[in-house]
Amino acid sequence: MAWQRREDNGISYYYSELLTRFSWLAQGFSARWPELKVTERSTKGSIGELTEKEAEAENRRHFLAVFGLTADQTWLLKQVHGDVILAVEGPPSPGTTRPEADALVTNGRGVGLATIHADCVPVVLVDPVRRVIGAVHAGWKGTLAGIAPKTLDVMAAKYGSVPSDCFAAIGPAIGPCCYRVTPERVALFQKKWPQLDWEASRSNSTLDLPRINQELLVDYGLKPTRIEQSQLCTACRRADFYSFRREQTGQRMLSVVVMK
Ligand SMILES: [Zn+2]
């Protein structure tokens, strides 16, 4: 079992093989977007390129379509590196601004949950018993705050999810190979989460955020066999992903999950 790459609708993306056992679920993480062609702008009677914003919307539209979603059916957040988790019942109301939060949960079918990434860890949570899903954006601040286990708290409180029933897919993110930090930051994690295996990393100048999230989920009660790491570093894999650390670009990847 591993994360796999697929091409569909002109879009390349990765998905967790572990989650493919659920026929009622669709899940993916976008790779680099295709370069959009110069488009004729008939309204202005001239030929020009799409603006960056238009190109982004166009690419997202194609990506979401792969999962049977429209932009109107899909929640996007104003991510603020916090630990606010939003439970949603249905698709966003038309014209609403993106709420400030870093994770989403729902038990609604056809409700797309999307998070935006450029190195930060995407965590997709699935409770197949209660039919609840969660989508988490966990950068270093969110990981330190325990946003992934806190999202499971919300799933438990609101929908009765039991940790040992749940599955998790941890997607492409910056790996310990590339994520160099100060010893002070590593110490923050060791102090907040002493129960994790800090011997394994043997470094006081790098952080392995995907592994820390995985350990937090196991600590919370998920079975290790029900968690799948992508082992894909967004900073190393230049041909596949954008990386904020590497490029300082505005380009972002999208993680999406939906119950059909
Ligand atoms: Zn790397």
In short:
The protein has 260 residues and is an alpha+beta fold. It has six helices and 14 strands.
Task: Kindly describe this structure.
The structure is a single chain. The chain is α+β, with helices and mostly antiparallel strands and 260 residues long. The chain has one domain (3-259): CNF1/YfiH-like putative cysteine hydrolases, CATH 3.60.140. Helices cover 23% and strands 26% of the residues. It has a 6-stranded mixed β-sheet with strand order 1-2-3-14-9-6. Strand 10 (121-127) and strand 11 (132-138) form a beta hairpin. The two termini are 23 Å apart. The relative contact order is 0.19. Residues 40-47 have low confidence and may be disordered.
Brief descriptors of the model:
CNF1/YfiH-like putative cysteine hydrolases, 6-stranded mixed sheet, alpha+beta, single chain, 260 residues, binds zinc ion, 6 helices
